[in-house]
Structure formats: C-alpha cells, structure tokens
Amino acid sequence: MNWETLLEHHHFVLRRRGRFLVADLKTPHRLLSTSVRNGGQSERVRALLNHQSCEGTAHHARHHTITAGGPDAYHDLICAEAEVEPEYTAAMGTAANMNYAAISTERDVGLEVTAVVTAGVEGNATCAGDPAAWREGQGGFEKAAALAGTINTMLLISVPLTPAALARAVVTMTEGKSAALQRLAVPSRQSADLATGTGTDQYCIASPLAAGSFLFTSTSPHVKLGELIGLACRKATQEALRWQNGLEASYTRGLFHALGRYGLKEATFFDDIAPRLDADDLELLRRNSKAALYEPLVGAAAHAAAAVLDRVRHGSLPASVQAEAIIEQAALLAVSLAAQPQRWLEFRAALHAVGSTDPKTILLAAIALGWSHKWRSP
C-alpha cells in the first residue's frame, strides 16, 4: 500500500498508510515527547510516529503482542511496519483510527503551528485528580481497572525554541486539548467531573534546530506563538473527537450528555422512568426520545441543572440550597419538555410534592411531568 501525503511543509512531510501516521522531519529538530524510546528531550529524532496499536475493547491478542517482548521490542516492531528507523523515531500508540486524524494549522507573522491529533474519550476520559487505574512500584505496574481512550498530539512548530519554551509548550498544548473537552462537556469516566484529558494521552512536540537563529523564549498564551499552539490543539482535538466518537458539538446538547454524570444514563433511562409514566406515555416517549430529549430548551435546562450540581459539589454554592436549586432547574426542564413555559410555578410545586432531595429522582420526575403534560391542556 502506498503512503498518502497529507501535508507537505518546508520542515516536515506528514504521511499516512493504514494504521500508521508519520511526520518525517526534513531538518534537525529539538523534540520533547512521551515516547518510550527516544522520549523526553532529544535532538536526534527524525520521525514522529502515531499508530493504531489495538482495537478499543477486548483486543487481548494484540495486548499480548504489545507486552510480550517489552516496550523496546514493540517499538522496533511498529517502526519496521511503518518503515522508519527505530533509533531516530518517537512513537505514540492509540486505539483511535488514523483515518480520523485531524490537522489544524494556525499562522501569524513569521510563525506557523500545526497540530495533528487522534482522539478518543469514550472509555478513558478523566479529570486530573480522579481516582487512578494503575499503581507503579519496584515490581512494575499493578492494574486496578481496564480503560480505553487516548488523545495523541503531534505539535510541529515552525521556529526554534529554547528548551524552556519547548517545555512550556506542553502546558499550552495541554490547556488547548482540555479547552476542547470543556467545549464539548466531555464527562470523566472516573468521577462526576468534566474531563481534562485521558489517562493515556501522549505527545510529540518538535521545533527546528537552526544554528545562529533567534530562539523564541515563550510559548505562553500571552504571546502569539502560545495563542497559535492553544488554538491549533483545541481545533484539532475537537475535530478528531467529532470523527472518532461522534462528538459533534450540537449533539452534546442532549439530556444524557448533560446529566449522565449525575445518573441519567441512556442505557437505564426507560427502566428508571417507567414507574412515573403510564404505558402509553412511556411508549410514546420511547418512540420519540431523540426529538424530546435533544430538544434545545430541554438541553439548556439539563446543562443548567448539571452546572448547579457542579457548583454545589465544588463549594461555590452551599449544600443547603441544592434541593431547592435543582427543583427550580428541574421545573424549567419540565416546562421546556411540555412546551408550556407558563406552568413553571405549577410544575415547581408538583416537584416539591415528590418529597425527595435526590437530584436523579427529581430530574426523572420532571421529565415524566413535562412529557405527560405536553399533549394535555392545562
């Protein structure tokens, strides 16, 4: 199979074939990467390699291939398959499809930054500080849970950087990635928080070595170069997630995306709400769930309810107001679903009568209340 050239630049060529994505560096670069071989800071790397190492779930045979001979043997194997020299290659692996790689290039006067991102967050999204799935000791890693999902970033910067500026670029790149997850309200899979990344994210950042050239000293978001890094990473991450996970921004308006962190899961929703609806209303909702639960005002109320619960959990609002505050948002959700905004006070009183302070119970009651009244006159 021939390689497909995705981008030709005076500093690099980006090419793809099957499970492999390679950036060949045309000139010497200073690199900072998470690669097992040639990782950390290096000036000898000549190729950046990203590849699909396995399928996302239950690919046990491939896991054996990756781990059997150790990381160095696997590095040699994938470099041979990608036809690059292992001693001069920095590599990343992921379950994401290379055909979904997103490329974003941002420019300013004399500056150019290209981010090449593959991303998946359905199984492994996490918020920094969440409970971890692995524990490392002298005997190696002890596994606590099986998780899948990775955001891999190649960041190619057109100008020479000081080592300190190269290190600072990691922070700006990461903040750009996290900003994309924030815009999509991606939930952590380990807690009720919104995700900041995944537990297996990797990167390669490269800037050219040019003897006698001016070295840029800052990649902070306060300077244009930092702006370009953040913007390119944010755009490419968001686009990669759109293709890999179907996280089109407008689809994230849905009730389950907004409130799944608080127990309203699509897989159990109809079982959870069934006791609150008669058989006809339940079947009608089942057959029209997309139209009802992705309705824009319903989505707005659901995201508002999630924001209230977040603020209570983080201490911005006192826990003593949670029950009242969530009932007010739930009443808004109910009138939005019923398309009867004039009944907010009535629905609020009805939700108080439920007699529960549990957010999931109140929200389910609100959905049932709004849906059961949508086609009934007040």
Description:
- The protein has 12 helices and 15 strands.
- The strands form 4 sheets. A 6-stranded mixed beta sheet has the order 5-4-15-13-9-8, with helices on one face.
- A hairpin with a 6-residue loop joins β4 (29-33) and β5.
- The mean pLDDT is 93.
- The protein is α+β, with helices and mostly antiparallel strands.
- It is elongated, with a radius of gyration of 24 Å.
- The protein starts with a strand and ends in a 5-residue tail after the last helix.
- It has 2 domains: 4-252, L-amino peptidase D-ALA esterase/amidase, CATH 3.60.70; 254-373, no CATH class.
- The longest helix is centred in the middle third of the chain and has 21 residues, at 163-183.
Our count of helices gives 12
**What is the CA-based Rg, rounded?**
24 Å
Please summarize the sheet with the most strands: 6 strands, mixed
- Distance, first to last CA: 66 Å
Taken in chain order, the helices and strands follow as EEEEEEHHEEEEEEEHEEHHHHHHHHH
Give the averaged pLDDT, no decimals.
93
The proportion of residues forming helix, as a percent range, comes to 25-40%
**CATH topological fold name of the largest domain:** L-amino peptidase D-ALA esterase/amidase
CATH class of the largest domain: Alpha Beta
